[in-house]
Amino acid sequence: MASFEQKIASPAPRFAFLWMLFIASTIVGQGKAEDWRLGRATFYDAIHHGSCGYGGVDPNVGLGMNIAAMPDVHPDHKGSCGQCYEVKCHPMDMYDRYGSELKRSMPNVCKDPNMSIVVKIIDTCPCDHNHQWCCGDMDHFDLSRYAFERLSGQIWGVIALKYRKVSCDHDVNKTSPLQTPELSTSVDPTKKTKSSGKAKKGAKAKAAKAAAKAKAVKAAKGAKKTKKPAPVAPVEKKNTLSVYEGKFKNGFADGGLIPWVPLNAEGFSKGPGWCTNVSARRGVAMVGGATKFKGATELEFWVKESWGIPDFQISLFGKKGLFNPVKIQDLKTVSKDYGANLHLKVVSVDDFLKGSEQTLEDAHSIVFINPLDWDQGLCVDAVKIAYPL
Fold first, then answer.
1. Residue 44 has what pLDDT?
2. Dihedrals phi, psi of 299, to nearest 5 degrees
3. How far, in Å, CA of 159 to CA of 39, rounded?
4. d(CA 95, CA 160)
5. Which residues, other chains included, contact 147 with Cβ-Cβ below 8 Å and sequence gap of 6+?
6. What is the CA radius of gyration of the chain?
7. CA distances from 268 to 75, 135, 274, 277, 361 (A)
8. pLDDT at residue 196, rounded to an integer
9. How far apart are CA 140 and CA 119, in angstroms?
10. Separation between Cα atoms, residue 236 and residue 91, nearest integer Å
11. What does pLDDT average to over the chain?
């Protein structure tokens, strides 16, 4: 039997082989799309200072505001400036790098899972400055806010994607002959990574150790008085619905941009708080459902004090957008945990309804907004919705 080398050395097979190479090179030269791959997307606003050095983005030139930043750990990153990708929202649950689950399989996450857009890479998302999203646990794109909102509502913050590399003049209404129904990915985003599992185990061990220590301190209080005032627990209302206490509860989920940080953030119960660094004039959300807020009278939450109460606003988000925001610093501290340096704040839902055309039946999320022109840290815990007794 002839070897492969012998076969391609003969005239007829060699002609066929060269013809196949010509066809393949023609397909590549025409900029045909690759197979679909799974990815994830967030959004950002500083699109006029991309690392590719293109300068300000002109909405009337080329793909306009349909641009994106690619993580520097992505296998396509080298030489990615000016390259284009077709992306579309994909309803799927996933995890971030910290192991926090992101519920995105609901039908209202994607505006149209069959609709796609083409985005151009003009920037880099550095792993060193964005550990949660851009360090390779899952293929990721940081889209412009405009591009993101064509696929989903910004209230979700993070969505799953299907994506593939295409030519920048690719027509999304035409199907590539190379398109297959298979999705290629090196990481299964629907499963927790080993690192996230270890993080959660570490968090549980830390919480158990802290609980044991607190119990010992409580037992010793009868014999010896402490100089510091004892932490005062919140007065428990009969009708409350827990939104977040060490983890999300009762159908609420991370609306994106808030990492679960079990290593350096402690909540009221010495468990992991809901903590992050929030970019200037950005908001973060706890996404639930409209029925959660019907008949509610108050929201209560613990907020961590670091050089004072952080200058954030709290509000609700509904079908028609944001309700009236309330400044957290203006809310009276009802109680304080001196050990964890947390303040209990209570806000009436009537304050959210002032000047709003929406009702509580329209609300589906609790949002925390950074109104300043620079980034701020936020850490909250024991977030609850209160109802009439």
1. 85
2. -120, 135
3. 9
4. 10
5. 43, 65, 66, 67, 68, 87, 117, 119
6. 26
7. 41, 30, 11, 19, 30
8. 45
9. 13
10. 37
11. 77
